[in-house]
Specification:
alpha/beta, Protein-Tyrosine Phosphatase, Chain A, five-stranded mixed β-sheet, 12 helices, 47% helix, globular
């Protein structure tokens, strides 16, 4: 992979922030650098990091995949307003206090995240929001664009995987991108488990749900193809516009 820019952008106050550029497609193209970024939540950004984000990335839009119930969203909205970036909240999880507990119970015997990710994208509400997010990404007026959840692994990881798969990026690059979150997870896991304000169901998540293993993403991609044929097949099943794939390719690839 010919890397023209550093993949990781090392902010002091925001972990797991990186560029999706450079990943290869089956037809020999690649994802453009400095157009799309994935991250953990931005609400804790320090003033020096805010200035650097504004100067170096200059985001025109941010997609927040957290639910309205999750804390500190208003500060992020204010920070982004200061730099002229549009804020879009597209929750990738039902706004229910019991959802995490129910999901954990349903997958208590799982050893990786693959089946859980497929379960999520099967849900009609999730599928619609996935399409809504990809529509925002396909709009060239929203570039550069950042998307994130709380820690930048699961909701962000599924959106990144579906985006890259829909654009024809090679599986090995999709898997590699997912695993780049792994080094950040132990510290983030410990932070959430030791945070008195964190919901009990989050503190009690099994260890595998805090991992970003190659097995999880490879399993997810295999299950996706078995059930839908491809990422494109899934998006079509969710009612995506016929032009979405072409517009995504035009927005992402060089």
């Amino acid at each position: 992979m010919n890397q023209s820019y550093p993949r990781h952008i090392n902010f002091e106050s925001v972990p797991n922030f990186r560029d999706l550029g450079g990943y290869r497609t089956r037809d020999g193209r690649a994802v453009a650098w400095r157009r799309f970024f994935r991250s953990a939540a931005l609400h804790s950004m320090s003033r020096p990091d805010i200035a650097r984000l504004k100067e170096d990335i200059r985001p025109r839009a941010v997609i927040d995949l957290r639910t309205p119930r999750e804390p500190n969203k208003q500060r992020e909205i204010s920070l982004l307003g200061e730099m002229g970036a549009r804020y879009h909240n597209v929750p990738f999880r039902p706004d229910s206090p019991d959802y995490v507990k129910q999901e954990t119970e349903l997958f208590r015997d799982a050893t990786d995240m693959g089946e859980l990710y497929l379960y999520r994208i099967r849900q009609p509400e999730f599928g619609k929001r996935l399409v809504d997010s990809l529509e925002l990404i396909a709009d060239r007026n929203n570039q550069p664009l950042v998307f994130h959840c709380s820690v930048g692994k699961d909701r962000t990881g599924v959106l990144a995987a579906m985006l890259l798969a829909a654009a024809g990026v090679l599986d090995e690059d999709i898997i590699h991108d997912y695993t780049l979150s792994a080094p950040f997870m132990p510290e983030l896991r410990d932070h959430w488990r030791n945070d008195p304000a964190a919901p009990p169901e989050v503190k009690e998540l099994p260890d595998f749900q805090w991992e970003a293993s190659a097995e999880s993403m490879a399993h997810f991609l295999a299950l996706l193809r078995r059930e839908y044929g491809s990422a494109a097949g899934h998006l079509k099943a969710q009612g995506a516009d016929n032009s979405l794939l072409q517009r995504l390719e035009e927005a992402l690839l060089v």
